[in-house]
Structure formats: structure tokens, C-alpha cells
């Protein structure tokens, strides 16, 4: 990026922020009027199904917009099917970044200030879109009949990453997930790590922008883990107060000792 373009973006962003701060009261007033209407007509009405879960109009609209933006990014001023496939691969990696935002979904949900149920839907949508974009990328390779010898390690890792993400999608269906959730969770995490490492190995020698997306994914994961560990250390009071201590006493010994003390007190009173 040109330095002057970065300066222009920064200056424009600062001016826009100042304008928002100046009109914040009007924005808050409008927000208070819009929220009840949105909740009444777009969030509270829900259609439930045992396989797909509950859906409301706001979720459907958000899903359509999300899908439309990704399709637009793939097709906008595309010169060939091969270029569209490369764009789809890049978008798949970008959608992969928030999927690896932490070892568990609860902490990223807390950071974003949303419920775990909402973040799970967000996670599922990103995972499905990332897999579909990757599938389109693979399809363009097959259509264009590009050479893809598996004797080359980068190509082999690309195949492994594709298979890993391909297994994750059907495996996440409620019919397969709910009966064996603990096993599913560990397998899901293993496949996610396998896919990330395989994609990194697939792009290892390219030194291009897609490879940086993998580094951002790994960095985001490590940063989230670091922040979570820091919060745990702070909340448990380890810093400055030492480690918490627990004294465990056998219940029988404790009752016997209390009984002896009570007997001694009774004898003293007599």
C-alpha cells in the first residue's frame, strides 16, 4: 500500500470518527427507536426445526447478505474462472481467521459481547462458507485441468487440508454431533488444526498474501489464548496474593474430633 493512500485512509477515518462523535446523541436516539421495531418483527418471530434449529428473519437476512458479499467478491470484474477460483481460495482463508479465534467458542463470544448460541451460529456460517469457497476453488482446478501431481508435498498437503474441511461440515450436523459430543469436539479440533497446518504447508513456498492469512489465523489464536490465560490469572488473584490454597480434611476424622470436643465441653459443664 502506498504511504499516501494509508495517510488518506487514516485522515478520512479520523474525520469520520469526529463526525460520529458530534452526532452521537442523534444516533443513540435513532438506535433506541429502531431496536424495539427490529426485535418485534425480525428477531422474536422464529421458525424452529429439530434439524436446523430456530431461525428468525434477521438471521435469514444476515445469512443472505453474507453469502451475497462473498459471491460478489468472487465474481467482481473476474477475468477467468481460474482467477475466480483463486479469489475463492483467498476468501476461504479470510473466513477461516475468526473460526480459529480461540480453543473454545465461549471466550470469543464473551469478547464480542454476544451469547454463546449466537456465536455458534456465526461459527457455523463462517465454517460453511469457508468450505464452500474452498470447494469452488477445487472445482476450478478440475475444470481448468491444471496439473496437480500429488508427488509434490505442497499439493499433497492441499489435498489433506481440503479433505479435513470437507469432513468437518457433515460431521457438524446435529444428528452426528449430539450423540457423541465429547468425541465430536476433540475430532473437530483435531481436523481444524490439521486443515490449518495442511493449508500452511500447501502455501509454504509461495510467500504470497494467502500465506499471511494463515499467520494471522495462528496469531489470532495465540493472542486469544494469551488474553484468556491472563484473565484467569488475574481473576484467581494469583498476582500479588499468591496461589489459592485448599485444606482437605477427612470427614470422618473431622466428625470424630468434633464429637470428642463436644464430650469434653459437656463433662466440663457437669
From TrEMBL:
The keyword Aminoacyl-tRNA synthetase does not apply. It is found in: Membrane. The chain crosses the membrane at residues 6-23, 126-143, 155-176, 213-234. It holds the Pfam family Ferric_reduct. One of its GO terms (biological process) is intracellular iron ion homeostasis. GO terms for molecular function: ferric-chelate reductase activity. It is a multi-pass membrane protein. The keyword Transcription regulation does not apply. Residues 92-197 form the Ferric oxidoreductase domain. It comes from the Eukaryota. Keywords: Ion transport, Membrane, Transmembrane, Transmembrane helix, Transport. GO terms for cellular component: plasma membrane. InterPro entries: Fe3_Rdtase_TM_dom (IPR013130), Ferric/Cupric_Reductase (IPR051410). This is Ferric oxidoreductase domain-containing protein. It comes from Knufia peltigerae. The lineage of its organism: Eukaryota, Fungi, Dikarya, Ascomycota, Pezizomycotina.
